[in-house]
């Protein structure tokens, strides 16, 4: 299914006057809305190929219907999102779930949809059919060199696939760890993992980055070998300048101050990018901004402040990706909500009066500092985000349009009701 | 110090046109703003007498200066808040920190400031000078009947004080519990506590309520004898119709779903009221809405929905109180921020399209349900809250006025720099 | 595979003198070892049929080989455990994973292995093939009466199956809840669930119990409709005298004091039984006693104290079940470890000097109370548990025997390497 | 009060035959008990001067009576502990609570009691009388250079005091952080803190170490500027070879895997030492081993394994200190329990069959690895610890002797009932 431009235009036209009225309320009272809108237009969030089907838990999975049956259909789905919001201009592949048989034609297909390929993701947390060694007891950490070797080679193969697609980064998320006290020598597991990562690092093209993702727990329930930002930073520092830490919002212990972690990783020049989602308990992989949107804003406030302090380009110097699972929502609707939540947080962060904040901090005026943050946060920035979409050729109301066009119904018609996309 | 009406008027006048412009943006697009503003005017939050001075932690306390030295000055402070926001029309006393020597004159003083007396609070978590028995090992739970008796009598004395002031409820927060496995027989501690509460309950006037507050931990670090809502509900149910559960937002285990607890307590007819604050780790007693304002909104969404379902009066049928500690902020500024955060959450909850939400739920349309909540939450309702203040005779910008009138500086001049208010 | 008596005898004989020496060290210094051993012999833990194969997480599953392919083989597996430890004399079935085609022959088979049928478990957290209505949005809580009806009927069918097998209790664990704020009306979800449970309750035979299990989160990641002990107790109280709360050790928020919950449920006469396991983060379903064995002991200390206070029979008046998942261990070895951990905690709890503890508590002698608990806990009670096994006809060292008999290798030979048992 | 040798001898004699019987049970079945006992004798735990009086919480403090009124009496108290257990041969001072007026005589007094001075502790989390600048908004992180300067100078003064006493390390625990989002620029706070630490580092004598302690939260409730091991390691790495991380067991987020942190810090050569205590919720400062003794064992297992791998001396190459608070126990009894819990965990860790564990790990034999750990843990090593005390001249049963000698009663007689030791 393709969304024709005129359908977007039609709906936008019918909503334009209301939108413009709301927008003018903001542009009248806020100085820098023009620059905010420009930055919003430039800001693109990568969609993970594994999040286009219904997700599940270990207790089961409930199909949504019309799920993409192959890589081409996944690109088509991201293309739909991009047509609607013009902010999802990249796709993040997962190997071996998405091995492109013909990279050239896949690249061309993506380009037709206005998409580029963001970080490629390796997978050593499951055993694939016909795989020689099992990852039951880890991959890059494994006590057996042969297993490590297999996992290293898989990662190098993923880089190769990524190069062919024009991707420029590799995300390594390891399930490696242990379920029971005693199972693992933590030190040796770290050292094995480091040695393995070094071999992968050596295979990176010059213009590539590798993102070392951390996670506190799950699927291992006693220890994880890249368990927190401190461990990830240790690996990244020992690896070299192309290695960075990747922050997944759901991968922390309860009550962690993620925004402080973000700030310090930026300070160290070692923040590589994000996996956005939201969570209440663990790696719940819920819609971005659905549980704690203020935390998301605080993270973006650190990003804007910290990137500006380093002269970084908001749109291109970090990897912006969603990593979510859609157990009870239509994945495409969920992703539209997630991208919008990210944009809102970013827009609010751009509204913070940085100079006044600096001064309030200099004076230890905690009340004022909070007021400055909340003044930006409480602003209804939806018209700014909508305007950015409008100018970029997207829909004022993406979910509204998605529903009025009956996209899901059409996909089900095209693909069937009982398709199952690869993924979690 | 008193804030004269004309000072408020002056500042309001200078901000009126900007305010009206913002307000009209809302009233133009939202149907029920008039009713929302009315409800906001009626909604009053009680200020705790113990939160008017600088708070501290076990590691120390940093004075703010100009803290109230006695009950009269505490009332004066709440009077200042009420003058500024017209939403703090009640004070919640803590006995024995605030024993009124002459109830009649204290009542008259409060009335001059437009204040009534909300729930009175007993204190059996500290030993008072000259006290016969120590509460080191608990009060209402104590293994020694004589200690329990002393604690019971203290509570009855608090009721007596409350009656004299026109209060109509008693809040019982117990630090009772244990620090070490083995220390306590949980069952006997429960039964002793219940028996004690029954004696206190028997002393309640007909029109009174008793609020049984729960808390997961601190100051006891292994168990608390009223540790969660389940335990509080057990006590309240066994006590009778005048007993209710009181929810303090900071008194839960990590990740607790407080809004669900609120909903179920309302369902059972056993929700008594709130102690508002915010927290990241434990009973941090931070400014309301400073850490997770969306959670606060979700709680108010349950309150509005649940109270409406029972035909309850929002303003009067539950006890609305703040319980916070002010370690790094001017307490009065902090309280102005807290009251505003509560009003914003309440206003947003009033904007939720309840009918559409019901329907979305009926259809399991999770995406729509989230959109409906976030549509209300993302609305910038500050103009509504400001308008409510304006109509009630308060300031459009309470903190701005507080600062321009140099209230703290005046209080320091009047009361001195090294005063210490009673409290934590 | 069957373990012949003489194989057990052989290994026991070779270890007997060492065992007897260790045992006499204990019997010499502790007064009531005879009674402890008797109680240990009587104490049987039910093995869940779904825990006999390799478990998995949402990230994958790594087969162990030789997993039982049907109910008969599951019974055979539990029979192996029972032959080895003589403490696993019951099996807990899960419908529809284990529908017995012929109840009579299945009962006979179980009897041959010395097994009885403990609680039967319903499953409304997955959709079964050909099922009319989906449980994607809940079962007993569902907004649609037809879905609730289907789930109710399934539970009644489970009771029927259980009756045929001689089971006398039904465990209802509901995944019902919500993933997102807004998705659910908590109150209506509670009321629907209660109404549904009432219909199931009405179908219980006179001598049956229903266990209402609670869980804080997963697979729903925002709210669970039976989310904590308070909610479970509300349901159980409203249902009637045959309804009880079931405590699964992994189903709590971080830092919860489970032993206090156990004590209070016993006090209320509403504790029904246990799902034993251990966890560090969430419902990790790890081997009992592998993460925090002291907590397990503290729970048993409450059980022994509380059951004795009510004159309850330790062995029969509560349901003792394991609920674990075996991602990296041989399930049978894991279960042997789990049962032993339970027995050790129970034995230690039996050694607590209850009279002295009472007195220490009466005197608020916290140091002494801790010493009394830790004195029992630090005692090496393994000889007592081994002696109980020996007297009952089991192995002194079950895991040692299991390995020397190459049980897993034999099961793989019999059943194949790539079998997959039903379960999580 | 002094405990005369013959009183210890007397009680030991009366318990000797029972003790010897228990001991021989162990020495008969375990190979390396002689070496374990030797290592236990060498292992000394430093007692913090601030833990000798009743501790408190922000809700109050309940005196114990007989608390030390000055540094001399604190040394006397630690001397009592040392006389009883011969494992508390060091004291850790806290400046300015314990400024020695005459270092020479204080050193001599300590020597009389067999005590040396362990790490000295600075205090910039409270304002001291007459202090020019306030630490309300931090010390080493402060936005104002003058405040940082004052805090730096205080630390250098503490080093000076420590040198005079023969201490060789400085522990820096900072309460620095923030209570509210917005209050702090995390990056600048880190950089200010680092710069300040560098000045302190420069003042360290050649043979000194500085320990950078981290803490997740409290007294700041939004962020801590040395918040976790990752941050502490960053500071320590940037400072140089004399800087190390100090691990306080209670300073982590819920569910943190502390033993893994310990292992990795050892791997990096950056583990400096410990503050032992136990906790259920936060920095509860409870008796060591009172909540989760298995975790303590797992930490010691990592310590023994990791230190042995580096050829480190268990007794001297790390700083072993207790940091606890005694709200409901006699501090001296609590400390006796804490030291014993540490010794037990250490002894158990020494019993682990390291070679077999290595092999089990090499074979991914998780069941066996757990068995090996739990085999050591379940062993009743109390006779080994008692024997170590006996040989070193201490009491077989320290708490028993403490009570039979009526030490607390004597201290109250000497010092009075209402003394208050400095501390928390």
Automatic annotation (TrEMBL), chains A, B, C, D:
Cross-referenced Gene3D superfamilies: Divalent-metal-dependent TIM barrel enzymes
Keywords: Isomerase, Manganese, Metal-binding
Any one Pfam family match given in the protein's UniProt record, by short name: AP_endonuc_2
UniProt cross-references to InterPro entries, sorted A to Z: L-rhamnose_isomerase (IPR050337), Xyl_isomerase-like_sf (IPR036237), Xyl_isomerase-like_TIM-brl (IPR013022)
Domain Xylose isomerase-like TIM barrel: 100-285
Domain of life: Bacteria
Protein name: TIM barrel protein
Lineage: Bacteria, Pseudomonadati, Bacteroidota, Chitinophagia, Chitinophagales
